[in-house]
Predict the structure.
Amino acid sequence: DAEITQSPRHKITETGRQVTLACHQTWNHNNMFWYRQDLGHGLRLIHYSYGVQDTNKGEVSDGYSVSRSNTEDLPLTLESAASSQTSVYFCASSDRGPGGDTQYFGPGTRLTVL
Amino acid sequence: AQSVTQPDIHITVSEGASLELRCNYSYGATPYLFWYVQSPGQGLQLLLKYFSGDTLVQGIKGFEAEFKRSQSSFNLRKPSVHWSDAAEYFCAVDPNYGGATNKLIFGTGTLLAVQP
């Protein structure tokens, strides 16, 4: 069965370190998204991609970067982790098409920055 | 400002009672609308979605939602709640400006507790 996976599921790091969160989908979807979830804010879009070599900034992109070298993967990098980036991170994917397609979510990565 | 509003942060209902979760949005006239559910420690799962046509849409797990353009609302309903429905529920909108953006704007969520 097709799926979307995230790794690691839990990560503790220190302020100033570079961290990369992995997202891998086997749906063969064109669109991929990264969100962060914080109490009182719901899910906020960090970065998104509509296809290979395409990346775009979302609502809360400062301090984060992504790259899309193939269809399956969209890793999220925190260049220099800050305590404000402690959060739960969700990756999602969807296919391109009319009508606003369904996004399929991964299980999430809980990141703690000390 | 454009937004998706879920006015109820927490709701508690008794098992077997009916449920209505509210969602209002301030985007254009024909947004695409979604409800997702998140169980503790899990990712989000789609319950239902509205693109066009019949304004009453049926979803999984016995949920339904009604799109009311005049009220800019997309409320989620269930006639009889089960204990397993305890979760957090998110309304989401694709503004659909000149076509689907495939990007979603989420409300802040409603946490549902179910009393036995």
Summary: The two ends of chain B are 40 Å apart (CA to CA). The mean pLDDT of chain B is 91. The longest strand of chain B covers residues 87-94. The interface with chain A takes residues 32, 34, 36, 41-46, 49, 51-52, 90, 94, 96, 99-109 of chain B (CB under 8 Å).
